[in-house]
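Service request form, structural biology core

Requester: graduate student, group of Dr. S.
Request type: structure prediction, single chain
Budget code: on file
Notes: please return the result as structure tokens.

Sequence provided:
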Amino acid sequence: MRHNKKRRSAKAVPDYKKASSSGKTVPDVEKGSGSAKEQKRHPGIAAASYSVIGDRSSQEDAVYVSTEEKTSSTRKNRILATVCDGMGGMANGGLASTTAVQMLKDAFEHVKEDQSVNIPNFLISGIKAIDKTIHSFPKEAGRGSGTTMVAVIVEDDKLYWASVGDSRIYILRGEQLSQVTRDHNYMLRLQEMVDQGQLTQEEADTNRQREALISFLGIGNVSLMDVNQDPFVMQYGDIILLTSDGMTRVLSEEQIKDILMEESSVEDKAKGLVEAVVARHSRSQDNTTVAILQYQETI
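Core staff response, request fulfilled:
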């Protein structure tokens, strides 16, 4: 992974305050004819991940998706998914990404049964702890270590997310694909200067440093992060995509949407996205990793 990143504008987030049209959390199946019993449908999450090394000498992406299970104390389904992209321009990118995933996974195991846990605060605390740990890694030739992170926690129909760096989270609802995280690169600062009249848009768009990351895990005292305080309320059929920039550098949002909208399993969607990247093979193809979650009804 490189420090410089390609910019894409984020789209509006779907209205997470709107419930499904029925207003039911767990809709019932309509009764059929004859003596068949009424079957109750329950919310569920289908999840999968897929990763390739690309043309790089090592895999510096890391991914984790927990299994869906109803916790014994909360009686709620809680699932964690995360994708981290180690920074190849720094030292120990692979170690940084795997450390980030493992620390978040371990912390989640300790709180997933806790009825009182504040999930946004949990994510913020986790980010700060991981950042401190990676920042303390030994330097190599004066270079520290770093990784991006995107993570989601699903609690029944509620979705919480966190992001540091330029890996991304997308939500597909119907035919609308929305990027809900920002790319934490220098373009954010340049855009502020444009808005204040200090730069023209052309000067910002052509600045050679515009894609350099300004926030990542390992930077030390990390403060720039995206964490939603109010949960996104999911509707049946919603698809959540977490991805490293190995995919977003190659596929357009329209291409991503087309693959996600195919009538296929989440496993096939994840594999299809990565295979589409490989099919558009470049001589400098980055590690590419995706995780997909789909909110659906199960009997």
